[in-house]
Amino acid sequence: MERLNVALVGLGNIGKTHLMYLRDMPYVHLAAVCDIDRKKAEYFAKETGAAAYFDVNEMFNEIKPDAVIIGVPHYDHPSIAIEAFARGIHVLCEKPISVHVNDAKRMLQAYEEAKRTYPNLEFGLMFQERLYPHYRKIKDILQGGELGKLVRVTWINTTMFRSQAYYNSGGWRATWAGEGGGILVNQCPHTLDMYQWLFGLPEKISAHAHIGKYHDIEVEDEVTAYFEHPEGMIGHLVVSTAESPGTNRLEIVGDNGKLVYEDDKLVMCRNRQPMLTFLKETDLSFGRVENWYTEIPIPSTKTGHHVVAEAFFRRIMQGSGELIAYGYEGLNSVTIANGIMLSSFNKTIVNVPIDADAYETKLNELIASSKFVKTVQTEVKIDMENSFGR
């Protein structure tokens, strides 16, 4: 296989981001672009020399690409991926894998079934923030055990500011029927993926999600969550699309010290002895563990959507290397997102694994009962580069 025939489905903001790097990859032939908006599909087909399609199944049947990149609204991820798997087409899907856990499970089941016929079939997810050097360094430190037993994680990530104009820029945005949620399904999947990538899934979730607190939307735009993990670690997560300037502060406390990422700096406070031992053995009523601070160098590494795609294409063409994020890994972040909303809806503590049927039922009820009238604003300035800052 000299060149990989690739199709791109979805030509909105994120689709254009994919187009930018696909044109620079000599081993990729962009065979087709697809969008239900005929003008978009025809425009980008003319720009790239790809064939224009307005129906995914028609494109799959006629072009039969080797791989497809899915960059459409979240609800459509499962149906497109499942159709691709059935034809032996490799899938690289934008985040989140799906809106709810049951749809993610349907996708993964279809993938596993297709692999019986196509054993080399690949399913990757576009979680490019796993490439960010500060997060990779944090993962290395945690895996090395330098912090000892983890006690607490507090993550405030309010750098995902969105204006009302942003929410008005698409009829599907920030609606139960069109998007299936707000910050948790659109801006926050990277943070949720990073949380589970670094710390694993919690076993209990309690949360409050504010619905349209700052924006004229019918979904959540601010969330505060509390997690309980096996072996006693607790986690806090605060996310919002209404704070500017926002904060991205990740604080990880362990028996041997504390690790803090903020303002592009990674700082470790190391204890001279384990704090949990000290608190039991010291005879000082107000004593503190002696410690010292050091700034941890953050190495420079390649990041971006194109790096995720390169790993995906390499594995298809050469059968070597690892994907940045495998399809099955997407289930965890959706589990956390759905668990947060279930806890908020029901004002209860939610156990993990969550009741996926209950969440799907609740979501369908919200869609059916919605009386929200969406304002759509056609003239909106979109700067996608500002979307990827963390």
TrEMBL record:
<protein>
    <submittedName>
        <fullName>Gfo/Idh/MocA family oxidoreductase</fullName>
    </submittedName>
</protein>
<feature type="domain" description="GFO/IDH/MocA-like oxidoreductase">
    <location>
        <begin position="135"/>
        <end position="259"/>
    </location>
</feature>
<feature type="domain" description="Gfo/Idh/MocA-like oxidoreductase N-terminal">
    <location>
        <begin position="4"/>
        <end position="117"/>
    </location>
</feature>
<dbReference type="InterPro" id="IPR000683">
    <property type="entry name" value="Gfo/Idh/MocA-like_OxRdtase_N"/>
</dbReference>
<dbReference type="Pfam" id="PF01408">
    <property type="entry name" value="GFO_IDH_MocA"/>
</dbReference>
<dbReference type="GO" id="GO:0000166">
    <property type="term" value="F:nucleotide binding"/>
</dbReference>
<dbReference type="Pfam" id="PF22725">
    <property type="entry name" value="GFO_IDH_MocA_C3"/>
</dbReference>
<dbReference type="InterPro" id="IPR055170">
    <property type="entry name" value="GFO_IDH_MocA-like_dom"/>
</dbReference>
<dbReference type="InterPro" id="IPR036291">
    <property type="entry name" value="NAD(P)-bd_dom_sf"/>
</dbReference>
<dbReference type="InterPro" id="IPR052515">
    <property type="entry name" value="Gfo/Idh/MocA_Oxidoreductase"/>
</dbReference>
